[in-house]
Amino acid sequence: MRKIKNVTFSIPVVLLEKFKEYAKEKYIPSLNTGVKQALEEYSHKIEKEKLYKIMLEASRDPLFMKDLEDSMRDFNVSDEELARGEGEW
Fold first, then answer.
1. Is-contact 28 37, C-beta < 8 A?
2. What does pTM read for this prediction?
């Protein structure tokens, strides 16, 4: 079971009214669920941005790129066999 914490925060009235209307019109199950889903989606977006920045930084590291190229070359034969349907996972 996930822990839940009640919090108090301020949001623009217009946004609150929109979410209440979404719940009333059954676009979302409830105001609480709609806010939770919106926060989850926003958190996911930020996590993707963070990962992109990490990958971009890694792509500028010559040692990382050399290691990546070596690994790709080492698995090239296996990848080709799998692509031709000659191997199993």
1. yes
2. 0.68
